[in-house]
Amino acid sequence: MDISSSSLNEYYAQFAASQKSSNLSSKLSGTDASKASDDELMEVCKEFESYLLEQVYKNMLKTTKLEDDDEDPNGQLVDFFKDQTIQEISKMSTDQNSVGLAQMLYDQMKINMGITSEEIEQKAAESGAVTPEQTDR
Length: 137
Prior knowledge:
The chain is mainly α and 137 residues long. The chain has a domain at 37-65 and 72-126. It has helices spanning 5-28, 38-62, 75-95, 101-113, 117-127, 132-136. α1 (5-28) packs parallel to α3. The longest helix has 25 residues, at 38-62.
């Protein structure tokens, strides 16, 4: 059985993607989102947006494969660097609110959970935390 480096790289990429998605899934399961603070909800939404962008960028990169890619002796290192770069670009895109998906998810989660701004401020006051709205005052 012939196992090429491109097959191993593809397997690694699929394994890493499934690990990341299962980590996000386990983070969300078993938690009561209605007890989460605004910052925690937004952070989860940003992580999801970043993961989604990362998958989009990786699939876009697959469409630009060059013929010489399989012959490169440093192919695994290059692929690792590409993955790390794509992850960082995805995170930066999310932090700069370039797509806006995280904000839309956040707003929708608040609507679905029936949480109002007043309830969030009340929970923050009970816990002694400062909400973003309070910092503007």
